[in-house]
Amino acid sequence: MRFSCAYLSKIRVRKKSSIEGYTLLELLVVVFIIGSLSAIAAPSWLAFLNIQSLNAAQNEVYRSLQEAKNNSVHQKLTWQVSFREQNEISQWVAHPQTVNSTLLKWHDLSSKVQIDDAETTFTQSSGVWRVQFNFKGNVNGQLGRLTLSSKDGGKAKRCIITSTLIGAIRTAKENRSPQNGRFCY
Question: Which of 21, 90, 119, 125 has CB 3.0 to 4.6 Å from 147, enough for a Cys bridge?
Answer without folding.
Answer: 119
